[in-house]
């Protein structure tokens, strides 16, 4: 009797285990079928592309606007922007960020060119690893970068020269504040500017100094320049923060009737134009630079091809155009 009970218990246990095993297998098979249904939809959906954007200076208004344009385009195209840059202008830090970004292996990189042989080699290294690189604002033309997106800086410099020559009220003795002596975009602007000034009788560039993309240094260099050249009548700034710094330097040197020209339409610069302290500025379109860079990457990812240079048009902003814009609203 005891053996019979043991046998029946064993059979019952086997049946229970068999039932549990069948349910487990059935559940596993259902999960597998669900996963198979989900996975194709994932494969069919667009993968998120990660793009690193390396700015010249993290919180510079110009670069924040580039970031905004890139993010706007990325949001529409299913990409993600990882924005980074030095806290202060620092080409060495830009090189380190580019090197680390390549190691991290993003889908693409957008970065400013800095006219540096090692930086050029890093861009080529990224290309060799299948990471497309687009230069923005300043080019690295000796590299194998995918494309350059930004201002035609030589033409922008010529345009600035034409503005200064057209300003009949200013005298022809000109001081220039450039953002950086090494930056390709600043060098090209100066080349274009020189080509107009040197071919116009009565106009002469008598001093050129660098602000290192710093408002404070622009002010200091302007003051020093004016104390050395007291007959100077016009000062031109080639980077976004220069115009504001030039005005501070003019006040520090106790000079009057100076004619100031600059680049970009920062809010403070716009106020200075309205007040008559700045004659005119060449306005770039950093937001469009950011968005165009991402649009080109989208074309590249889809197998498209395009020219190596994409120039974003500049405009001129002066008091007349500001007043026309306000009255037209």
UniProtKB/TrEMBL annotation:
Keywords: Membrane, Signal, Transmembrane, Transmembrane helix. Residues 52-303 form the Periplasmic binding protein domain. Its main location: other. It is found in: Cell envelope. Pfam families: Peripla_BP_4. It comes from Paenibacillus mendelii. InterPro entries: Peripla_BP_I, SBP_2_dom. This is Sugar-binding protein.
């Amino acid at each position: 009797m005891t053996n019979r009970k043991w046998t029946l218990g064993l059979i019952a246990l086997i049946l229970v285990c068999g039932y549990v095993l069948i349910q487990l297998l059935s559940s596993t098979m259902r999960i597998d079928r669900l996963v198979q249904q989900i996975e194709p939809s994932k494969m069919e959906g667009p993968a998120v592309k990660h793009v690193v954007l390396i700015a010249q200076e993290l919180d510079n208004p110009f670069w924040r606007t580039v970031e905004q344009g890139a993010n706007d385009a990325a949001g529409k195209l299913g990409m993600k922007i990882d924005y980074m840059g030095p806290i202060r202008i620092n080409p060495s830090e830009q090189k380190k960020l580019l090197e680390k970004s390549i190691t991290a292996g993003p889908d693409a990189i957008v970065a400013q060119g800095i006219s540096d042989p090692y930086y050029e080699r890093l861009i080529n290294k990224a290309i060799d690893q299948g990471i497309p690189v687009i230069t923005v604002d300043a080019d690295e033309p000796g590299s194998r970068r995918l494309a350059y997106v930004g201002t035609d800086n030589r033409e922008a410099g010529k345009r600035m020269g034409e503005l200064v020559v057209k300003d009949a009220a200013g005298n022809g003795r000109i001081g220039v504040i450039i953002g950086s002596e090494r930056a390709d975009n600043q060098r090209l602007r100066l080349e274009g500017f020189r080509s107009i000034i040197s071919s116009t009788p009565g106009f002469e560039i008598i001093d050129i100094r660098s602000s290192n993309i710093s408002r404070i240094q622009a002010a200091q260099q302007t003051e020093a320049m004016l104390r050395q050249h007291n007959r100077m009548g016009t000062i031109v700034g080639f980077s976004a923060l220069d115009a504001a710094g030039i005005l501070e330097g003019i006040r520090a040197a106790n000079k009057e009737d100076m004619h100031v020209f600059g680049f970009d339409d920062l809010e403070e610069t716009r106020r200075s134009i309205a007040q008559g302290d700045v004659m005119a500025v060449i306005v770039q379109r950093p937001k469009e630079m950011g968005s165009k860079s991402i649009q080109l990457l989208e074309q590249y990812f889809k197998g498209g091809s395009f020219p190596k240079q994409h120039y974003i048009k500049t405009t001129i902003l002066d008091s007349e155009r500001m007043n026309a814009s306000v009255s037209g609203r």
